[in-house]
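Schema walk-through. Below, the input block comes first and the output block second. Nothing else is stored per chain. Lengths vary across the set, and this one has 308 residues.
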Amino acid sequence: VSTQSTGGRMCCPQHPDVALVEDYRAGDTVCPECGLVVGNRVIDVGSEWRTFSDDNGADPSRVGAAENPLLSGDLTTSIQFTGDNYDMARWQQRMGNSSSDRALIHAFGVIRLMADRLNASQAIIDRANTLFKKMTDSRALRGRSTEANCAACLYIACSQEGAVRSFKEICAVCQSASRKQIGKSFKLIIRAVGTNVDLITTGDFMSRFCSNLDLDHKTQQIATTVARQAVDLDIVAGRVPVTVAAAAIYFTCQALAIDKSAKDIGDVAGVAEATIKQTCKTMYPSRERLLTPEIVAKGHLNQFYTMR
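--- output ---
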C-alpha cells in the first residue's frame, strides 16, 4: 500500500490527478491507471443487503428497523421468531421491553391496522402515534379501551392532516370499540391535549367521493356548490355533512343526467340509499337556488318526484 496526500486528499504517488476507485468488496482504494492500492480497509457505508418486498424466503438483513423515538427502550439485540428460537425470542421480547413500551407497541400496531383499512398515509399514522404517546404520558385515557383510544387519535390525525374521515368510517374499521366509546375518548383527548379539530364540512368529503365515483371535475364543482348552498340556506338542517355531500352528488347527477344511482353513491359515502333520496326531496323545492338556470331548464330533476 502506497499513499500520498495532496491538499488533504488521498491520491496515487505516480498519478496524483487521477480519480481513485473504491473497491468496496475488497475494502481497497485503487488507482485505475497503474492498479496501485492507495488505501485499504475502506468502510462501506451503504446498505448491507438489498431487500425487495417480493423476495421469497427470510429477510437476509441483520440490522433490523430504525429505533422508534416514541419508545423509551434503548437499542437491543432481538431474537428472530423462527423454529426452535420461538420460546427464547418470546421471553427475550418480554424481558427486553418495559410494560409501557409493550402497551405502546400494541397500540401502534392497532393504529397502523386501522390506517391501512382507511388507506391513510404514513404522515397520519405518525401523527396518531405521537398523539397516543402524549395521551399515555398524561394518563388522561387510563382505564379506557385501547382500541377506542387509538380510533380517536386516528380520527383527530386525519382531520389535522387534511384527510378527513367521518366518525362512521372510523367506527367501521374497529373490531370491538363502539361509537360511544370512541366519542368519549375523543372528548377526553380534546380536553387533555388542548388540540384543535376543525368542524367537518361537506367539502371535506366531496373530492374523495367524486373521485371514487369516477365523476369529472365539472360535476364535482357543481355538487360542491349545491352542498354549500344547501347548508347556507338552511335547507338540510339536522343532516350530517357526509349525508349532505352524498345527497348533493346524487342531486347533481340527476340534474345532469349522469347515470349514478343512490345506491352507488351510498356505497361510496357510507350513507343509506333512503337517506340520500329523502335529503334530495328536501332539496328539490329549492332547486332554482341551488343550480344555475341552464341546468334547471333541462328538466331532468322532474324525476325526483318519482325517484327509483
